[in-house]
Amino acid sequence: MSTFQLPEPKDRPARLTVGVVGAGRVGPALAASLRLAGHRPVAVSGVSDASRRRAADLLPDVPLVTPAQVLARAELVLLTVPDDALPGLVEGLAETGAVRPGQLIVHTSGRYGVRVLDPALRAGALPLALHPAMTFTGTAVDVQRLAGCPFGVTAPEELRLAAEALVIEMGGEPEWITESARPLYHAALALGANHLVTLVAEAMDLLRTAGVQAPDRMLGPLLGAALDNALRAGDAALTGPVARGDAGTVAAHVAQLREHAPGAVAGYLAMARATADRALANGLLKPELAEDLLGVLAGDTERPENPENGEDR
Q: Bridge partners of 23?
């Protein structure tokens, strides 16, 4: 990962008044980090009780107002709403005249670049897409986690320095993502982070069913080492019965899942197929062992164990 230095004063944005539209888990944390950099949060909007509590905790003394009032008070506006709500929000704010010329309008969606902000651009705003590649809790710990957090940055070329400077002031590290690559970029992050939570939660459920009293403590060292190995070595870190071609073991897994956790079977098979493909492509899974394994993964669980597979674990 690249190391970024604090921009020279001429490249840093002036101290700005900051507003947040959508007090979910992300917006208040980003505004709080901007306050630490010298900017001044002045307004926040939120609908649910949880959003209001987050705003009160992370942005005390910042008034809760309507989205239009946020834009009226702030020079830098953070639009931190769900992806599907973003286009309609931007259009509505532009159509009602809430957007002012010269106003920095920033969204934090991973899916979108800056084209979703075109209605605001036509109203004279300066559009930025700054997506923190981080999972948020909605608590003060998020502000600390922003230190070193990569941000996917998309902006018009003339605003690139300002966008990157804002990210650095929040403690993050900017990574430039082109407009056309935003959906793929976001899919990659969702595949890695969101699905990881599902995998870990399912693994803990299965361990509890197997009688393990503290599945989190059992999984912690294993998953930590697996993640570290994967980040360092990629496919070379693959291990386990699929990568070894242990068709009998995989068949036993599938049989047990069908009995005790049928809802987990489809996910296990899908990930095992993907693992087998990558192991084959990288020479880790021997072709002569792949046939039985792929048969099991295709639904043929009657194949016998292969006693001649003497590979070390």
A: none
Neighbours of 290 (CB within 10 A): 18
What is the Cα–Cα distance from 292 to 42, expressed in whole angstroms? 64
* Three-class secondary structure of residue 151 per DSSP: strand
Q: Are 41 and 20 in contact (CB under 8 A)?
A: yes
Q: What are the pLDDT digits (tens) for 36-91?
A: 999 999 999 998 899 989 999 999 999 999 999 999 999 999 999 999 999 999 99
**Residue of 201, 223, 204, 203 lying closest to 213 (CA atoms):** 204
Q: Measure the CA–CA gap between 16 and 166, rounded to whole angstroms.
A: 11
The 10s digit of each residue's pLDDT in 205-235 is 999 999 999 999 999 999 999 999 999 999 9
pTM: 0.84
Look at strands 150-154 and 126-132 and give their pairing.
antiparallel
Q: What is the 3-state secondary structure (H, E, C) of 227-240?
A: HHHHHHHHHHHCCC
Q: Which amino acid is at 202?
A: E
- Residue 52 neighbours by CB distance under 10 Å: 15
Question: Reduced to 3 states, what is the DSSP secondary structure of residue 304?
Answer: coil
